[in-house]
Write a structure and sequence with these properties.
475 residues; alpha+beta; Immunoglobulin-like; Glutaredoxin; 4-stranded mixed β-sheet; globular
Length: 475
């Protein structure tokens, strides 16, 4: 066992021996561990995406929490932006060790209940490795693909059966263990027609036999227990994407195709999924993905009208409405909503203070060092060819001291370095969901393109484009 966990695990073993002796009848459970190279000072303990507890890290980067009553089932722990699952049977006492720099590959559990949780991590890593190695297989014809997919599934199934026999886990846990195995396989089958078309240019829709999707008949699309489990949700998303795209290929423009495909997803989800909880989770996932990828304002409006016909989750509706409203406010020709930014001198200024010169705002985070350097190098290059623009780097992290340290060690002449004073406010007003987000404004502070990307091959053409004439759209 890893040295830093020997003492905590030993203490838990003593505690568990007492539980066995006195026969605990309550639902007390323990969760703790250590985070190496933490990026913040807490661990979030969650159930179905909702935070149950915020557990602070001690000075030595360890954490520990006693739960007086913890219902057996699947939970997750987050050290933002990363997360993983943890399963608790009655009175389990678990410690986890994780390195924030290599999160998934470093997770190790010990204590009562550790074997089944280490199995989940092993299965997750097997599936991730399989994903990375499998892409060339999508180029094969249907028979060749199925043969490879079935062979991969059989290997994973042997691993699953072996661990199930060794650990002798409960039927309740087996639901999640089996889901990790099966839904990874089913997802591959759903995305095959799509990926094959993208990679080879050949549409396989008419060549896939009806028996190919036979597994769908035995699936439960209304399983509340799995509604918070990524393998299940990912599968439903892949299945809906596959089913929604079947009748649309080669008939519409890219923009209209995105709208029609996602509206079709909503309609299919409403037909297949009757459980309100599962349906709302899937509808919300579809809405978030669509609204943040397709910035066509008219299509966004049409999509939201259809979304509201099917969704009954008012809290999520409000959140999605907020994103939709923010996107509407970011139309070309509108004035960029002002947010508060902080300079290296500690002074707070509104983003509107950069009006008066054409401006490029681009975001970065210390958590993605390669993007930070690549984005700044791109900007310096653009600055040489476009001296009429000012380039403003907007850091989205909370740690002002770390931000200043990074910039002191990296000089980028000509780039104005700022940091969000309130990232949540900036995120809401500028609809920031991806770190690759870039906003281009005109000299008067109006928006030229609020959804640009420094790494897009057409980015420089965006800089050269004439300003949007808002007056032409208001007649």
């Amino acid at each position: 066992m890893i040295r830093s966990l020997v003492v905590p695990c030993a203490a838990m073993m003593l505690m568990m021996s007492c539980e066995k002796k006195f026969g605990r009848k309550d639902y007390t459970a323990y969760f703790g561990g250590e985070v190496l190279n933490p990026v913040n000072r807490y661990v979030l303990f969650c159930k179905d995406g909702e935070v149950i507890d915020t557990i602070p890290l001690k000075e030595n980067n360890t954490f520990f929490k006693e739960f007086d009553s913890l219902t057996p089932g699947l939970y997750s722990f987050r050290h933002d932006p990363e997360y993983q699952y943890v399963y608790f049977d009655k009175n389990d006492s678990l410690m986890v060790r994780v390195n924030a720099r290599d999160f998934d590959e470093s997770v190790v559990f010990c204590g009562r209940g550790d074997q089944k949780n280490n199995f989940l991590m092993e299965m997750y890593l097997r599936n991730e490795s399989d994903k990375n190695q499998f892409y060339p297989i999508f180029d094969l014809d249907v028979k060749g693909f199925e043969k490879a997919a079935d062979s991969s599934y059989e290997a994973s199934n042997k691993f699953y059966e072996k661990k199930k026999a060794e650990i002798k886990w409960s039927d309740d846990f087996d639901k999640f263990a089996k889901a990790a195995l099966d839904f990874h396989y089913y997802s591959k089958k759903e995305i095959y027609p799509i990926v094959h078309r993208v990679r080879t240019g050949k549409d396989m829709t008419d060549e896939i036999p009806a028996s190919y999707y036979a597994y769908r008949k035995k699936l439960d699309f209304n399983d509340e227990q799995l509604s918070g489990y990524a393998p299940y949700l990912n599968y439903l998303s892949h299945m809906l994407g596959n089913m929604a795209a079947i009748n649309y290929h080669n008939h519409f423009s890219e923009v209209d195709l995105a709208l029609k495909t996602n509206v079709n997803k909503l309609q299919i989800a409403d037909t297949l999924i009757k459980d309100e909880k599962v349906k709302n989770i899937i509808l919300n996932n579809i809405a978030f993905t669509y609204l943040l990828e397709d910035q066509n304002m008219e299509n966004n409006h049409k999509f939201l009208e259809m979304f509201h016909k099917f969704s009954t989750d008012n809290s999520k509706k409000n959140e999605i409405n907020k994103i939709g409203l923010a996107i509407q406010q970011l139309k070309s020709g509108n004035r960029l909503p002002s947010v508060q930014l902080v300079g290296l001198d500690g002074k707070t200024v509104p983003s509107s203070s950069f009006n008066g010169k054409k401006t490029v705002f681009f975001c970065w985070t210390q958590k993605l060092e390669s993007h930070f350097r690549a984005a700044h190098r791109k900007v310096i290059d653009f600055k040489l060819r476009h001296p009429d623009y000012q380039f403003v780097a907007v850091n989205v992290d909370d740690d002002a001291e770390k931000w200043a340290q990074i910039l002191s060690a990296n000089r980028f002449p000509g780039v104005v370095e700022m940091r969000c004073k309130d990232f949540q406010d900036t995120k809401d007003k500028w609809a920031i969901t991806k770190i690759h987000r870039t906003i281009i404004t005109n000299q008067d502070g109006t928006i030229k393109n609020a959804f640009a990307n420094l790494f897009d091959v057409n980015f420089e053409a965006e800089l050269d484009a004439r300003p949007f004439n808002h007056a032409l759209t208001t007649n």
